[in-house]
Amino acid sequence: MRLDRFLSETSPLTRSLAKRALKNGEVTLNGEPIKQSATQIDTDNDVVVLNGERLALVGVRYIMLHKPVDVECNARRGLYQRAIDLIDLPKADRLQPVGRLDVDTTGLLLLTDDGQWSHRVTSPRHRCAKVYIAELAEPMEGAAAEWAIGQVADGLMLDGEETPTQPATLRLLSPTQAELTITEGRYHQVKRMFAALGNHVNSLHRSSIGDLALDANLAPGEWRELTAGEIALF
């Protein structure tokens, strides 16, 4: 790997700033000052130091975040704090959300810089189940509840869509709290499904993706890296 590229991938420096740091004598290679940006290095064995700090390539990361409200999943900075801003890791900006949650939705959010793994989780072909807990504005009881459960199981036609949703599972935890399991990821799907049932979602929380549940020890805003076993679930 070229030395300037290595610097840009292992430090906050851009490629142009890495070249400037080299010219300024801020970099050593195996203990010797070096200024040639095109120098090829062995990333496994060579020792590169920038201003006294040894640099190393960052491998792929797999993160579980308990997403709080008022946090968005966009890469660009907007009105709200970004999910990646909560991750205290080198080059956190390389992490991408695996699917998305609305800014007012809480719960399990996965982030990774492994694109193939992310695709396996999100691809409609794999029909990965996602479980949401919804707090509803209107109670669902008796015959109305049974009707709603049946409608969800058969598939709902959402406003503006040409095909119904895939069969899903609705389970009522209380008259105003429902657990919805879906295998798709349409735009605002859960909220639109309850709207199609004549209800409104006051708050929404994702509790699991596939066989991976949100760690109960993570408070909103906290995160941890996935274990090898959890990564292998997808």
TrEMBL record:
Top-level taxon of origin: Bacteria
Q: Which CDD domains match?
A: PseudoU_synth_RsuA, S4
* Entries under SMART domains matching the protein: S4
Q: What is its EC number?
A: 5.4.99.-
Q: State the UniProt keywords alphabetically.
A: Isomerase, RNA-binding
Q: Which NCBIfam families match?
A: pseudouridine synthase (TIGR00093)
The EC category is isomerase
What region holds the RNA-binding S4 domain? 1-63
In the record, the note on similarity to other proteins reads: Belongs to the pseudouridine synthase RsuA family.
Q: What does this protein do?
A: Responsible for synthesis of pseudouridine from uracil-516 in 16S ribosomal RNA.
Name of the molecule in the record: Pseudouridine synthase
Question: Which reactions is this enzyme annotated as catalysing?
Answer: uridine(516) in 16S rRNA = pseudouridine(516) in 16S rRNA
Matching Pfam families, A to Z? PseudoU_synth_2, S4
Sorted alphabetically, which InterPro entries does this protein's record hold?
A: PsdUridine_s_RsuA/RluB/E/F_cat, PsdUridine_synth_cat_dom_sf, PsdUridine_synth_RsuA/RluA, PsdUridine_synth_RsuA/RluB/E/F, PsdUridine_synth_RsuA/RluB_CS, RsuA_PseudoU_synthase, S4_RNA-bd, S4_RNA-bd_sf
Q: Which organism is it from?
A: Vreelandella boliviensis LC1
